[in-house]
Design a protein that fits this description.
It is built from 21 helices and 21 strands. Helix 16 (318-325) runs parallel beside helix 17 and helix 19 runs parallel beside helix 20 (471-478). It is elongated and about 95 Å long.
Length: 517
């Protein structure tokens, strides 16, 4: 008895949904509990076709639908019934004077604006028509008055609502949770509309961002940090469309490292392989076969590759899979895999095996700072396919050979995906030494040289930003590097060029840097 006293009985429910999932079952249970269903348009027709008794909105308002259905529920009879504060005698009396019965439950979902925008064949007029007006108005009205009214925007909530009604009504805490969810729903919907209007504005004055939690993760970068992965509403990342064939659930660090590996390997010529550790490549190669590319990539730095991510830009075959399982890695990601490869990988039960499409290029790149965001367009290298950008120019006396130029293109691609300061040393189309995230460019070069060992002899090197002094080039040349690519643009470019000429090293300027902090 005491528990039921806190419940808000549901005597009238307004149902108006575009997505009809589960609505018949909900309405049937409500009617069985003595609830009067109010509806209109396609929803009323759908419910009647399944034997559910419905009162038309027009019969309550005395106003027929108009403007081709644009105006149906925008009427004082409907919104007065939703918004009335039942604790205020003046509100109750006013409803009574107008012959209006309160609405205790609002079940609404909205026109599919985001799905329409995603349709490449949708016209502007079709998109505009999918901007819902009455739906958000009813949702917000019910959510505002959640002290007395329950609101449902998600079919997953229908069973719980029906059960609550069958137990005597909705509880205050239930209505509050539903109200919060409803406001989040309309906020995301409005944000999608704003983003569509801003489609031709690179950095708009207001950047609404709605994130929906997909799943909670075991923890973040460290066990004491709570974490989850969210999706931007209306967007589909590769990871949401991916298939995880086996292994443990993906962790925070797995997602971060796999994203970095997946973007880099997508920029390599095929077949290409990347071994990623802590957001930096510790191996990368292009080869005649995928198996060859993996072997060469792994040889770059096997110690660092232990427990890393392997990304491949072609279907994973049996031979390559055999080489992978001979080592310990956390994640393998590829655009596909053969049945034989899948069988081999299955022997490593904890190994996460993922197939996915490649990430989209471009778009906004955001980084959280306290109280705000740093926002930029995502960097693009545009060097895939083996092409050397037209703006590259040789500034040294010695011109790189065709083979060296191809190696420079490869090293430049890897450097562009490596944390600054970055130096990448490559033999042919394979990294042999990666110096990443160093506070000085000399330090990055020294680390890359240590990793490469005697493989620096005859190799090439790439620097993600210009060489501010000749010291980095001198160190690389002394180690046996024969060609270097860097952006140029330093006050001391002449000194760096002179150093290259003194050592007989080819030097190429790209006229574009690729810092990655």
């Amino acid at each position: 008895m005491g528990a039921n006293m806190t419940r808000q009985p549901v005597r009238q429910a307004l149902i108006s949904v575009f997505d009809k999932t589960g609505v018949v079952d909900l309405a049937t249970r409500l009617v069985a509990g003595g609830v009067v269903i109010i509806s209109s348009g396609g929803t009323a027709k759908h419910l009647r076709s399944h034997g559910v008794s419905v009162v038309d909105v027009a019969d309550l308002t005395g106003a027929k639908e108009m403007l081709g259905g644009r105006v149906k529920t925008l009427h004082p009879t409907i919104h007065g019934a939703i918004l009335a504060d039942r604790s205020l005698a003046s509100h109750v009396d006013e409803l009574s004077d107008r012959g209006i019965s309160p609405i205790d439950l609002v079940v609404v979902n909205l026109y599919p604006f985001e799905a329409t925008v995603a349709d490449p064949n949708a016209t502007v007029s079709e998109i505009i028509e999918k901007i819902d007006i009455g739906g958000p108005t009813m949702i917000r009205a019910a959510a505002k008055n959640h002290a007395h009214v329950a609101v449902a925007t998600d079919p997953d909530d229908y069973p719980g609502i029906a059960a609550a009604v069958e137990q005597g009504g909705t509880l205050p805490e239930e209505r509050q949770v539903l109200a919060r969810k409803a406001f989040a729903h309309t906020a995301g919907y409005d944000a999608a509309i704003v983003r569509w209007f801003d489609r031709d504005d690179s950095l708009p004055g207001l950047l609404p961002l709605t994130l929906e939690r997909v799943e909670s993760l075991r923890y973040g970068e460290n066990p004491h940090q709570p974490a989850a992965i969210y999706t931007e509403r209306g967007a589909q990342g590769w990871w949401r469309e991916a298939t995880i064939h086996q292994g443990k659930a993906m962790s925070f660090n797995n997602y971060a490292d796999t994203e970095a590996a997946w973007r880099l390997v997508g920029d390599l010529s095929r077949p290409g392989v990347v071994v990623m550790k802590h957001m930096n490549a510790c191996g990368a190669a292009e080869g005649a076969t995928l198996s060859e590319a993996f072997g060469t990539a792994w040889e770059c730095d096997p110690k660092s590759g232990f427990g890393g991510i392997v990304a491949l830009n072609e279907e994973l075959d049996e031979d390559t899979a055999r080489r992978i399982v001979a080592n310990f890695v956390e994640v393998v990601i590829a655009p596909g895999l053969t049945e034989a490869a899948a069988n081999l990988l299955a022997s490593k039960k904890n190994l996460r095996v993922v197939t996915a499409r490649f990430p989209e290029t471009g778009g906004l790149d955001m980084r959280r700072v306290e109280g705000g965001m740093l926002v930029q367009y995502r960097d693009s290298l545009a060097t895939a396919g083996g092409d050397v950008p037209a703006e590259w120019r040789v500034v040294s006396e010695r011109t790189p050979t065709d083979e060296e130029m191809a190696a420079l293109r490869f090293a430049w691609t890897v450097a562009g995906h490596t944390k600054s300061n970055a130096i990448v040393i490559a033999n042919g189309r394979a990294a042999v030494g990666v110096g990443a995230g160093d506070q000085s460019r000399v330090g990055a070069a020294e680390r890359a040289i240590v990793k490469a060992g005697d493989r620096t002899v005859g190799a090439v090197a790439a620097s993600d930003a210009f060489l501010p002094f000749r010291d980095t080039l001198d160190i690389l040349a002394y180690a046996g590097v024969r060609a270097v690519v860097e952006p140029g643009g330093s006050k001391r470019d002449d000194e760096v060029i002179a150093a290259a000429d003194e050592s007989g090293v080819s030097l190429v300027f790209t006229n574009k840097r690729h810092f990655r902090h």
